Amino acid sequence: MDKVRVVLTALIIRLLFAPFFAHIWDVNTIQVSLYYFYQHGINIYEYVYNVSMWLQTSTNLPLYYEGYAYLPHYLLMNVPLYSLYLTLGGDPLPIKNVFDPSHPLKVAFSPDVHIFLLIIKLPIILSDAIIVWLLYKINRKLAWIYALSPYSVFISAVWGMFDSLIALLLLVTILLLRDRRFFEAGIAYSLSLIKLYTAYAFPVVIAEVWRGGKAKGFIRFVLGALVAQTLTIYFFTKNPTAFLSTTLLFHGERSGGGITPLNILWLIFNIEFNVAFSKLVSAILVGVWSVITLYVVKKGVSIEKAIAISMITGLFLGKLVNEQYLLSVYPLLLIITSETHKLEKYPLIFALLNSTPIYFALPLLASFPSYQSILMLWHKIIVSEEIFFLRHVTLFIIGTLMLFRMVDLLIALLSKPRG
Amino acid sequence: MKILCDKESDQCLSKLKRRAYIAISIYVILLSTLPLVNDVLSNGGWVGYGWGAYMFDNGVVSVRFSDIQYGADKPKIYVYPKPYYSLRPIDAVEISDYESFVDTLNIYRDAENMTVKIIDRRSIEYAYTYPNLTLRKVVTVLPNNSIVVRYETSRDVLFRVSIWRWYYARVAGISFNDTRKTTEIMLNNVTSIEFEFHDKEYGAWIGQVSFNMPINARIFRDDVGINKFIVETVSRELWFVITIHSNTSAVTSPVTAFFKTLLSVKGTRIVLPVIAIALVIYGWRRWIK
């Protein structure tokens, strides 16, 4: 009964927030991708690639359009939901005027936006509920922590980002590996690559497969992984250049920032300098991650801890640390360390300062008659130099504290590899 | 911990922690100096930093095709008060493509295609394509800190270029009071136009726009003051030089100017290294001790 209560609590809290809030740019990315793919049959990777090429040609700068840069599964998973939304008579593009970086000034919504947001966030919210259910099997307290976690609610139900799905797939991978079900584990891990950052866990997962299943297990795992990537292979063969540019090159070439002291690059008005420096940081990261991952593999660290260590190293010492990244390892960290919930304040405060609460609440505010006045006032505030100064100094402080905190956690995990 | 230590022990863990924090601390302090390093490297040259966002800054004059965060359609000209101890430049004038036309075409909105290119350290080129017409706009900052804006088209057109400010004190000797009876005043066949404006911190400023040919101009106002003048001429080429300088003898104290403008983009260059050192000390006390 308690299990049902905690799962329902997680669901209800998230469903209450979902229709009224969104990270407009990110949800628009999904909206536009679904619209072009489902309504017009356009290869979404070609679309993003073409916009990036246009940007680079017209500006002569190493700029990429920040569109759909994930593997195709998430898009395809949303197709039935989008189809349902259209069947209900929804506006195909309920979020309007989101194209260039100054979109917060121009963004408008059709009245259908709330239904759209609710429907489009269902897989993410469902992932949260399944995580809660799985955590309950391990420890009742952990399930309640996750269900009520403001950070998890924020990323999934408010922002609309699908990192809880990745967290779920990583969790499922671990459970399947423990049960020696290598084919299914291959499918689960392979699907987690929708967001390619889970590639940081690849060596430790493979090592675990080899340790547990030897050659036979390895073949099963690879087969499972390949089956899950059939769609990726299909999109890749349709236009390899567009696919690789959008899913790989974009991540490699983009400038650093986020919850890291490297967000200082946001204060440097020189994209070429920023990209060059970000690449240098990435090169150093690859070295550090390789050494730590090798150590973890050699030590035979437990799989959940090994994944957590390799993911934390790759995600939080790297050039770009987005607010949602922590969620991908959050359930794992809950299992491993009691300190986890103390971490969530950093990304939460960072997101609210960086994007501002108004930005997330735009779908809700749009129904107010004073919406345009709110937009203008908000814009006036955020472009003032004083606010710009205060915001960016605070973001640098949070980024640095987060780095210290993650290094501390990493050392704690590494110091007791078998614990 | 065999990578960095010989054995797993508290002493070894403590040593590893110290090493990691020293590396991270050096990294954070180095990062905090990056904006200053970039300012020195890109001083006096155009740099791009986003969608349509470009900037030239040499500590005397700053020209931006952008607000702080978003790319836009302008060259917006800022000037630093002498003797340049202010961290924040004064907003002077902007030449808005949104409000300028070639024939009946809005320069920005009606363009089918637009490309931007930094053509040399001091010059940036905007190329617009319209049906049966191309327009090239080059903005150059001269060594004497005057700004040249040059328009070239593929055929003769009627240029109507808006030069904005909220607000001018005078344009061509005409004040807001002189415009009370009409919403616009016409200037015919002039080769230069002088304007004046006041900054509440740094007093009176004078600017001059000198044209390559005689032009007509219309001066406009709103309820508060004179807010733009529109330059008009028929040609294949229009260019003008804008020079702005202070016209006040009142000098704000360097200390006052510095602290009044500390909460600014340039202020972060000074504040962040201090904050980085403070954070490193805090991190050390919080997590190492």
UniProtKB/TrEMBL annotation, chain A:
List the signal peptide residues: none
Q: Where are the transmembrane segments?
A: 113-136, 148-175, 187-206, 218-236, 280-297, 348-368, 388-414
Q: Which UniProt keywords apply?
A: Membrane, Transmembrane, Transmembrane helix
Q: What is this protein called?
A: DUF2029 domain-containing protein
UniProtKB/TrEMBL annotation, chain B:
- Alphabetized UniProt keyword annotations: Membrane, Transmembrane, Transmembrane helix
The portions of this protein that span the membrane are 20-37, 270-288
Q: Tell me the domain of life.
A: Archaea
Name of the protein in its database record: Uncharacterized protein
The scientific name of the source species is: Ignisphaera aggregans
